[in-house]
Each structure stands twice: as structure tokens, then as C-alpha cells.
Amino acid sequence: MGSLSGSTAGASQTLKPPVAVPRHWQQLNILVVEDHSAYRLLLGWLLQKLGLGHELVADGFMGLVAFTSRPFDLVISDCQMPFMDGYSMVRAIRQHERDHGLKRVPIIALTANLQNDSPQRCLDAGMDAWLLKPLTLEQLQALLVRWLPGGDAGQPDRQDTLPCAVWPTRATLVATFGSDLIVDSLLESLLTEAWEDHRVLRHACATLNASLAAERLHRLVGSLVFLGSCDLEITATQLIKQVQTDGVAAHSRDLDVFQTRLCVCLEYLSSI
User: Fold this and answer.
1) What's the whole-model pTM score?
2) d(CA 116, CA 79)
3) Coil, strand or helix: which one is 131?
4) Which residues form the Response regulatory domain (predicted)?
């Protein structure tokens, strides 16, 4: 999720400006598990900028020891590490939580390659979301706002907030639309509209406005289909019918899950 040549990083910063850091973050602690020293330093610096307490360790075994030694509010872990990789560590952490009746702590996968570290593999291990290297302060902050206690969207109960396995890539979009310039322009326009539709959808859900919710879901279907994005358009189409028939309140949980998955998908698209 960085500013490599040909990416939409500039557009992403325009679409998702940094929010003010919540005061309660000063009381929170994050565990970072990363074997690459440069990335440990980078994450430590970014978390310090956000006013968050943190501990940095170099492999999964050290991460497990740290997690079982003192409480953390969130874990960010690389997937591929020596001694104990991120998947093994996360499975051990989830078992530790179950054995001791502890609250489930959000765990974010940190990866440079979504093909090797597939979303399904991350989900199966017990991870909740992902960060794609290289990352920026804005992208880290946006994810933390969602997953830290007291965050904007809360912490979903279901482990289905990772993106689906079928991803549009820059290469596939360029092959479809013809050039990087066209892809950048289309992404900027479509993402601007999709984030606004998401904002209005949240308002519609909060006010139980079924007609407005169905309208914004319909618009989002158009954006998602145009970009070839995951299977969310199928879910949105189903939700349109359900909301029109039963109202918003009857499907509030499914709408919350859809919106969380939508944000993950849009953030991915803003990074390619």
C-alpha cells in the first residue's frame, strides 16, 4: 500500500485524509512482529507518530512470548518469518485466548505479496485484516481507526473482513482498459464515488432509511462490477432485495459485514 510509480497513492491521500488521532490511543499498546529490521523501525516510528504504545519483536516465537506476557490491544505480524512464522504464531495466540477465556485481539497480517500470503490462508490462521508493504502513515492509521478499541466501525465479530481470493491487479486493469493513465483516472473517479456511496450508506443504515440504503447499494454494485472487484457485488445485490423487502434493521448485521469488507476492498484498490 505505497506510492510506487503508477499507483493511486496521491488519489488515495485525497480520498482518505488522515483523521485526528483519538486521545484514548495513548493508553493502547500494539505488538509488532516483523523479522525485517527496517520495517520494524518504520512501524515503530509510524506508531510513535500516532501516539500508540508498542513493542517490536523479530519473529513469531518472540511475538508469542510477548503476547502471553502482557496485554496488547492489536497485533501486526509479518506472515513469513524464521523460527516461527506469522501463521503459526497467530494459531498459537488464538489457542491461548481460548484456553484462558481472553477477549479476541485483532491481528493484522503484514505482507508484500497477496498471492503467497493468500487472504484465505490468513483467515484460516485467525488473522482479521491485512496491510500490504510498503505502507504509509495514512494507510496504517485508517486501518487502526477501524480495528483498535473504540474505532470508527468497531470490531466485527465474524472473520470475513479479509478480501476475497480473486483480485483485480494493476496488470489486469491495464490489460482491460489499455494504459496506466486510463487506469489511474478511472480508479480515482470510481473510488471517489464509492467512498461517498459508502458514507451515505452508513447514514442510511443508521437512520434505517431502506430506500436510500438500496439506492447506494445499487450504485456500489455498478462500481464493483466495473472494476471486477471480488464477489461483493453479489452480496450487495442480495442485500438490495432484502432491504427493500424487510427493511434495514432486519439485515443490520449483514450490512455491517458488507461495509467492513467493502472498505477493505476499496483500500486495496486504492493501493494498486
Assistant:
1) 0.53
2) 9
3) strand
4) 29-148
